[in-house]
Design the sequence.
């Protein structure tokens, strides 16, 4: 059974950021990312590698003010690109789940390519949202990014930190868990005929 190329390339420009994103859902995890936010680049690269999604991101934003706009707008555009690349979702597995450790941190993610955007995110320790990872990436941006991506990709995502102390490890475990769960969910399953929903549409 042959499938159309599951790719997308999009642009977004506002007074706060100018961003381009390209994705290939059937890639090998190659990443070419430059957002002006080094730790965010690291997280997007991890997402690409562990979801086996080829990803190119270029972003120029007002990071001299805060990384917020660049992170949020990248999440919006990446979500829109994933949605476009998924197409009509015929033949996908639809569901994925992953449990990923990074030293003392342990995160779990469950992804449903449902067409219904919903994020449940829990478990981060009190104060994590205020921590500057690498001196520039606020811990609160982890949730903010996943909110933007989930809404725009129309995914149902449950993301839970089970254990964790080091802020870098916490964030990276969460990104990698999401990536591995998304990898399962977007995978083409030869046993699936049509769209995996009783509604006939996702």
Sequence:
């Amino acid at each position: 059974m042959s499938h159309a190329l599951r790719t997308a390339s999009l642009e977004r420009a506002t007074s706060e950021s100018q961003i381009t994103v390209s994705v290939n859902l059937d890639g090998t995890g190659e990443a070419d990312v430059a957002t002006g936010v080094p730790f965010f680049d690291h997280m997007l690269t991890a997402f690409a590698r562990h979801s086996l999604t080829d990803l190119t991101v270029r972003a120029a934003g007002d990071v001299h003010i805060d990384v917020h706009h660049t992170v949020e707008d990248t999440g919006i555009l990446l979500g829109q690109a994933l949605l476009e690349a998924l197409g009509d979702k015929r033949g996908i597995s639809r569901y994925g789940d992953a449990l990923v450790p990074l030293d003392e941190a342990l995160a779990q993610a469950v992804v449903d390519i449902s067409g219904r955007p919903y994020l449940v995110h829990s478990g981060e320790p009190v104060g994590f949202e205020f921590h500057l990872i690498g001196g520039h990436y606020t811990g609160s941006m982890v949730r903010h990014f996943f909110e933007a991506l989930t809404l725009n990709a129309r995914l149902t995502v449950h993301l839970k930190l089970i254990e964790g102390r080091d802020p870098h490890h916490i964030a990276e475990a969460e990104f990698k868990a999401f990536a591995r769960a998304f990898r399962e969910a977007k995978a083409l399953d030869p046993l699936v005929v049509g769209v995996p929903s009783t509604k006939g549409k996702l």
